[in-house]
Amino acid sequence: MTGCGGGGGGGGGTPTTVAILNKQTSIPAGTQFVFNAQTFHNHKNPQGVTWSLSPTTGEGTLSNPVNNGSSSSVTYTAPNGSCSNCVTVTAASVENPSSTDSDTFSIAGSAIVISTTSLPGGLVGIPYGSALQAIGGTPPYTWSVSSGSLPAGLSITTNSANITGQTITAITGTPTAAGPTQFMVQVKDSATPASSVTQQLSITIGAASTANDAELSGQYAFEISSFGSVAGNRHAEVGSIIADGKGNITSGVVDCNSPNGSAQAVPLLSPGSYAVGPDHRGTLTLNFASTALCGFTSRTVAFALGSLNNSGVATIGRLVEFDYTTATPNDFGSGVMYLQQSAAFALSSIKGPYAFQLIGQNTIPGTRVVETGTVTADGAGNLGAGELDLNSDGTGTNTAFTGTLTTDPANTATFGRLNLSCTSCSAIGAAGHEAVYIVLANQALIITTDVEFSDGLMSGEMRSQSSTSFANSDLKGSAVFYLEDVGNTAGDSRATLGLTTFDGAGNLTVVSQDKNDSGVHTTKTNQTGLTYSVAANGRVTITGANSPLGGYLLSPTAAFLMETSGGTNAGFVEVQSGGPFSAASISGNYIFGVAPQAVPASAVSSGIAASTGGGTLNVTSDESGQFGLALAQAITATGFNVAANGVGTDSVGDVIYMISPTKAVLINLNIPAPGVLITEQ
Known about the structure:
Strand order of the largest sheet: 45-44-43-42-50-49-48-47-46
Structural class: mainly beta
Strand content: over 45%
Radius of gyration: 30 Å
Number of domains: 5
Shape: globular
Helix content: under 10%
Number of helices: 3
């Protein structure tokens, strides 16, 4: 850079020239690079350099331009993917006449790599779906089987309208034969020329075990809440099925509500089928008369059964929707089923005070709604003294309401189905029509039956309250709560667990709290200065918290809980028993499932867990999410560290809050879309 003679100022003398000093032929995809330029022959009066990029969009960005005397620099950020001689950076002097210098270069994408190195197994006759994933190269990718063949009944499909808006390629279908199958997959990128790579994979298909089919015997009411094929929209199903204890669903009826429309009291075609394995896990398939009724002709569900009665029949099951094809994306969600008591299938059974909680969305996709309340039934279909708190996308409303229950002539006596009409719901902007399925006289499942796009969609549960006159003194002791909501990061969720103490006089302390908000973990301990009040109808108001919380007591030991404005957290609180706790408190056989997910990105699961009390929990789970299905996933959680107050951690990143030795709730602290896992014996 010697030989730069002095020139005149202000454009006089020798004209200024610009040179980019560190020209490149290729820049790695997704990285940053700083270009430097120098002005020559006019050092005494440099006026700076301007930088530009061609094309202006799609091939990276320029930022942080700096002019310092005769030198200048700019930061270039390369996009992902690759291209050849596709980007030009230009430096121009601001003098008149201007001098320019340019550098045209390539984006060097990283080598394409198949990140899927193993695939879950499946079962004959049960839908299979597992995503194929790659990184590097230039998307989009094209997948194929380069040698061998997929298991019979499976194929590679690509969906560009996944519920999260992603394009996903997966192996999907319904296996027709058992056995292991090995094959080679190839992925090819879109570069010119294209790059490709192969990966050896295998899938083992098993035959469904029917060893414990007798555990599912009798009549069961079920509720499933999910997200589905229309991005951001909720689906829900509530119904009743009859299982014969021999692997057959002999009859049933279901109410479904989704973007496809509301379908009420849809009969099931028989026979449906189910299989229960030796570990109390299984699958069931329900068949419907027409796709137009619920948007599908069949529904497959994975379940874990628990709380066997004296006859060895399960009284509860945790459910996961187990349908997945990427060519025509299906819903995925979670739910619960309960053994029904047919003697309660009458209008007269619904009598006394009830508390309820429903979760769903309003008329705009992706906007969350929760409502919790209380109402008193007279046994003749009249609902009075109703009060509910509704939170629609963070805006809270408290209102009184009344309503009526009527029988369904075709289904009340057989399946426990009733119709509910809210007669004064205009204040909350709801049409107020619901289907109610009786489980017991003190418990029922609920789904709204109005059109989702005009009235929203919610589903949930109602249970008897233990009193018609509650007070602060009814809420006392140490209690565990859980809450779920959408997260601060769009598309992610928030899950919170906490341990509180209620003193029976209106004061509470948050002893411990763990929150995962969009993958960010925060904790609180010994938060004081909070108060609560309990109204005669069981309505709980908590003040002094960061967000206003409320709920409705079922009894002195349990309550539905929700955020009454701001966020839309919803969950439950339950008084602890059986402490002090330790790792040895986790002992025996458990089933688990997840609370209704708050966002489509949250994966759902159900399964079983077993521990001998030595700090190790052996888990087998069935999982469903945006990347497919996974049957019989084995997980070993070790290193349980449980304090005397029931709060602990394990080796796989969970925090656990024990309600009792037979029940606990967990959240994973590391994932961006967490949910609450409910574990019970």
